[in-house]
Amino acid sequence: MALLEVETVDTYYGRVQALRGVSLTIDDGEIVTLIGSNGAGKTTTLRTISGLAHPARGHVRLRGLDIGGLAPDRVVMRGIGHAPEGRRVFARMSVRDNLFLGAYVRKDAAGIRSDEERVFGFFPRLRERRNQIAGTLSGGEQQMLAIGRALMSRPKLLLLDEPSLGLAPILVDTIFQVIKEINSQGTTILLIEQNAAKALQVANRGYVLETGRIVQEGSAKALLESPDVQRAYLGI
Predict the structure, then answer these.
(1) How many other CB atoms are found less than 10 A from the CB of residue 13?
(2) H/E element holding 113?
(3) What's 98's domain CATH number?
(4) Which DSSP state fits 17?
(5) Domain range for residue 200?
(6) Where would you tag: which of 26, 75, 160, 210 has the fewest CB atoms within 10 A of its CB?
(7) Per-residue pLDDT tens for 155-173?
């Protein structure tokens, strides 16, 4: 059984249809990337999975259980963490308080402390700034915090929406190294990334989304070698 199944999902914003029959699967241990142009529906797909948007039709299943109608906190409790586009840190709270809010569905104090240390292991800069107000962090540090906060719920599936957006190249490399390390430690990842080449270099598989529809899927290698993908998203 797949970890996640999205089956023929339609999602609307008011009367505007954002997703049209979207279907995808993610197996345990994979990194899967979703690529497409701005407005293609990538963020809406993640929002539909995490409960921030609800499908009008179709199903979202986590280990066979339909979660498509659940509230976001219930989705987190089921095992999905979401680092949204734009970071969305709690700007007036400290780094540590942001991390603890990521663990709000948990009661295991010792485990929470252990996962805080794990996040600091991934992002040593957050340890240095653990008492700093999040709104005063740099963009790269806020991105680290957004990912760390999502990890604090100890998710089975981590949704990452544009983790390198607006970052300097050296920080982009750091973020992608951490993504690979998080995955190597057992967390499955669904990744949206403007840098399609970078995303496909770390992913096992990918889907191409255009105007709310999946138009292509395959191994990361196959998509990297696809003339259509190269022309549209890789600048080749």
Answers:
(1) 10
(2) helix 109-122
(3) 3.40.50.300
(4) E
(5) 4-233
(6) 210
(7) 999 999 999 888 888 888 8
